[in-house]
Amino acid sequence: MPQRRKVVVCRDLGPDVMPTLLNHPELEVIVWPENSSCDRKWLLENAPGASGILVLLSEKVNAELLDAAGPNLRVVSTMSVGYEHADIPELAKRGVKFGYTPDVLTDAVADLSIMLALMAGRNTKETTEIWPNFVWSPFAFCGPQLSATSTSPTRTAGFIGFGRIAQATLARLVPFGFTHCLYTANPSTPPNPAADAQVAAKYGVKEVRRVDMAELARESDVVFVLAPGGSKTYHIVNEEFLKQMKKTAVLVNTSRGTLVDSDALAKALHEGWLYGAGIDVVEGEPNVDENHPLVKAPRCVVLPHIGSATTETRIGMATLAVNNLINGIFGRPMPAELSVSR
Amino acid sequence: MPQRRKVVVCRDLGPDVMPTLLNHPELEVIVWPENSSCDRKWLLENAPGASGILVLLSEKVNAELLDAAGPNLRVVSTMSVGYEHADIPELAKRGVKFGYTPDVLTDAVADLSIMLALMAGRNTKETTEIWPNFVWSPFAFCGPQLSATSTSPTRTAGFIGFGRIAQATLARLVPFGFTHCLYTANPSTPPNPAADAQVAAKYGVKEVRRVDMAELARESDVVFVLAPGGSKTYHIVNEEFLKQMKKTAVLVNTSRGTLVDSDALAKALHEGWLYGAGIDVVEGEPNVDENHPLVKAPRCVVLPHIGSATTETRIGMATLAVNNLINGIFGRPMPAELSVSR
């Protein structure tokens, strides 16, 4: 009988997925036993000799962890689409493969983006908790309407970052009467008006156009923050941006909390620079409490990072993370490997 | 100078709309002065001699009011699409025209129906109030996903009532991957499979089909209650219906509270007969407080009847109600008159 490969799994991934690992005849599986984030000390103690490690956003994948694991390590697999918790150059230096879970959560996050755009405009922060202290009046709770109307027949969606989730969100907006789409992109990539025209034709909108942040702020009825986290996008939504937004616009962030300056957004909502906000991610999460400026801000819905939290999608992510791990260990093509150039 | 016609307006409709009435040279306008529902005694005292009365859902339009107004009355105009507060035969008997506000609120209510379908599935009752007491885990808060997925590639919408709002809701569901549409209709109307096929082709779904309540309950991933109120639809969603729903389904009611048995729905949510509910209307509203069984029920979002509450739509409704009133008084065609056959 061949020696089994050791794998360390930083969270129990549930009865739909764990048997694939636990029943694998060639694996010795060590799982963090608590219903909480994996303890760092436990992880470093169990990493030595591992061929694979399965992590979540909460685990830093850095030189410390990779050194602890040692030369047997072939793959780190994260159950997330984001990888700002992983030091990619350190992985590359050691020739360790890295798996992640793109695509499978696209629809769940696009769904949540639409939900938050609606909740921000419909003022659900106030309307869900109003019982019994409210007096109906013709314009109580009224804010901007997401759908186009006969008297205001156009709508513009603005996307900070225009990848798969943004385009899935745009597709959902079309029957609401959205006619125009603006987006910002990484400045290092060249503009491509021909590709933009193809996207416009695909979704049936009048225009898809790459713009700068100032034009995006000025022209959008809804701004969706859907770019990666990290230093290049840190606080890209700041006071200057928020001051340029329409007073009737709403902001939705379903990507990473670091892109939005929380204090600036809270100030903007208190002062009415924009109408409302729907926020699934907050800088510093999960250390957010009822005194956080965004939780206290008017017309601001704050959710605890549930973008991908549907049964179907989380099973899909966990399955993909496990398959990345197993295939990486045995040198087979991984279903979703991030290319880590040295 | 001709004698001015008296009109009684049961609520101040705001600065965008009231000048049309107040500055009309041929009208004497009496407006309920408080920011609350119009007092019945005040209304009955001011009605005599009126040529027109503008009401809201809160004002009963019955023989008592019509008798108080007397023979000058030519039109009653309601700022609502529903008219269960009006005794249509009594209006017909007196030859009093009746105006209402259909169509103009279709998109706002369809928007809210989508929002509530998403909020029920995403468990926002719990997730909006979780700070700071939550522990992330791979399947925390996970419920059914509104969008279709690669592993469950079909979705069925069920509509109790299939008028304009239902079809506007269906249009919005298509990019979420909805493939099938079932509906129930007034039994007195004949089925029309050819028309159903046309609707399916129009929205790009595989099937639109009229069914009975039992099949609708069994097959739908989301049930939208969008039929008129009144005795014919009273508690049409009852224990029997709820017991037949999928455990992963959600119920959305954006029509009238009387269609849903609140106690049955609360029981169904506590016992898990369905996953969640999004409710904009509650039987007995606005007398709903934090002890109401639906406000206390798990995975149940309860809103204070804000279906049409967007700035654009409420201005549109108020404008239409005023135009119905003025045109009715002067014998001109009303933009939205309900035919009241004698």
UniProtKB/TrEMBL annotation, chains A, B:
Matching PROSITE patterns: D_2_HYDROXYACID_DH_3
Transmembrane spans: none
GO MF term set: glyoxylate reductase (NADPH) activity; hydroxypyruvate reductase [NAD(P)H] activity; NAD binding
CDD domains in the cross-refs: GDH (cd05301)
Domain D-isomer specific 2-hydroxyacid dehydrogenase catalytic, chain residue ranges per copy: 7-336
Record Pfam families: 2-Hacid_dh (PF00389), 2-Hacid_dh_C (PF02826)
Gene3D superfamilies hit by this protein: NAD(P)-binding Rossmann-like Domain (3.40.50.720)
Keyword annotations of the record: Oxidoreductase
Domain of life: Eukaryota
This protein's GO CC annotations: cytosol
Residue ranges constituting the D-isomer specific 2-hydroxyacid dehydrogenase NAD-binding domain according to the UniProt record: 115-307
Family: Belongs to the D-isomer specific 2-hydroxyacid dehydrogenase family.
PANTHER family: 2-HYDROXYACID DEHYDROGENASE-RELATED (PTHR10996), GLYOXYLATE REDUCTASE_HYDROXYPYRUVATE REDUCTASE (PTHR10996:SF277)
Name of protein: Glyoxylate reductase
Taxonomic source organism: Trametes coccinea (strain BRFM310)
